[in-house]
Design brief:
Elements lengths: L12 E3 L7 H7 L5 E6 H5 L2 H9 L7 E6 L6 H12 L4 E6 L1 H13 L11 E2 L9 E5 L11 E6 L4 E6 L7 E4 L9 H20 L5 H23 L4 H21 L3 H13 L3 H16 L4 H10 L9 H18 L16 H10 L1 H6 L6 H11 L1
Parallel strand pairs: 1-9, 2-3, 2-4, 4-6, 5-8, 6-9
Antiparallel strand pairs: 7-8
């Protein structure tokens, strides 16, 4: 018998080239007229702010901008952005950019209607009530934040990352326009794309995977493995960018419902303590965690290998499963992100401390198909070293 499962996500998803041009009408559909645009510094400098302004001003909309978002955002940015939203009486929040901008935007939206600071709502289901309406517009094919209920922040004083997780963080609208990803340079294209692959593989192998999430996660693996190389090495290939953004969306829906696993628990301390970007940290940890998890999910690993184009027919289960690991390592290498913890400056003596922090990121570990002890975590870090 199948277990009972549910499926949730953004309330509405619009996908397609040029879909950004309908933004003003969607703001009106949500009975809003005074948006706060949340955008990271680099995108603002690259002209995205003007692009949004050109869509809103002709419709008679005034807007405010919060453009202080940076990679691996500190939690204080959410508090600061909420003050801007309240000061300017904004009635909707639009996050445009990668996961950092969208996470900050989602947190700002709930802080604008709930008392307290962002730190008060870290954890699961701590947000008491609805926030302002939210529209998320990704410019990378990676985090899936446009369809998740999570916002992740660095607590710099503690040198750790923590998440705000609440159904109230689900966006009212995810607006995905592949054309917005065309200008993303090769390195962030690779890192965010491999982050999406992590989401797809982790959600597919999660103990909380369901028939619906598995469909999306596995198709995400197909799309990402078939298109990421082209996006990295031929960034103007619109068809590849379109397929990659669709794969990232599917992976985001998979993780929103099945959850991620030990890759994320082990990568969080790398971002919190060393400032390593989320996508890169996940990429470094993925093969080592896959090698650890493989004995627990041989059949699913064989599925992953097949989804990534490996020929598995007639192979023993373990041989077929091992092809998944080889395929992932090849994709990472082909995307130019083949690195190790040692090359990133991590010291072996830090492994126990990293393991201690990783074990506090409990929710992904609960989803992992194999139990992870502190000794296991240290060994996984050693494998990634």
């Amino acid at each position: 018998m199948r277990k009972i499962f549910s499926f949730t996500g953004a309330k509405k998803i619009i996908f397609g080239n040029g879909s950004i041009h309908s933004l003003a009408s969607h703001i009106k559909d949500l009975d809003a007229k005074n948006p706060l645009i949340v955008i990271d510094k680099n995108l603002a400098k690259a002209g995205f702010q003007e692009k949004i302004a050109n869509l809103l001003i002709p419709e008679g909309m005034k807007y405010s901008v919060y453009d202080k978002v940076e990679p691996e955002p500190g939690i204080e940015l959410a508090d600061e952005g909420a003050k801007v939203a309240l000061k300017n009486k904004c009635d909707i929040v639009i996050g445009i950019g990668g996961g950092s901008a969208m996470d900050v935007a989602k947190a700002i939206a709930v802080l604008a209607t709930n008392k307290g600071r962002a730190v008060d709502y870290l954890g699961l289901n701590k947000v008491p009530k609805h926030g302002l309406p939210k529209i998320m517009i990704p410019t990378t094919a990676g985090t899936g934040s446009e369809v998740t209920f999570t916002a992740v922040f660095v607590r710099k004083n503690l040198k750790k990352k923590e998440g705000m997780n609440s159904p109230y963080l689900f966006p009212e609208l995810a607006l995905l326009d592949p054309e917005l990803t065309l200008s993303l340079p090769p390195v962030p294209t690779a890192q965010t794309g491999l982050d999406a692959l992590c989401h797809a593989i982790e959600s597919y192998t999660s103990v909380n995977a369901s028939p619906m999430s598995e469909l999306l996660s596995l198709q995400a693996i197909v799309l990402i493995s078939e298109n990421l190389r082209n996006c990295v090495h031929d960034g103007k290939n619109l068809k590849a960018r379109e397929n990659m953004l669709l794969g990232s969306l599917y992976a985001g829906l998979g993780l929103a419902n099945a959850g991620v696993t030990a890759v994320h628990s082990l990568s969080y301390p790398l971002g919190g303590r060393y400032g390593i970007s989320h996508g890169l940290a996940n990429t470094v940890m993925l093969p080592a965690v896959m090698a650890f998890n493989m004995p627990a999910v041989l059949e699913k690993f064989a599925d992953i290998a097949e989804a990534m184009g490996e020929y598995t027919e007639g192979l023993p289960a373990r041989e077929a499963a091992y092809l998944a690991l080889e395929a992932v390592e090849a994709l990472i290498e082909d995307c130019g992100i083949d690195t190790s913890l040692e090359e990133l400056g991590i010291k072996e003596k830090d492994f126990p401390a990293l393991a201690d922090v990783a074990l506090t990121v409990a929710r992904p570990l609960e989803n992992n198909p194999r139990n992870v002890t502190k000794e296991d975590a240290i060994e996984i870090y050693a494998d990634a070293f």
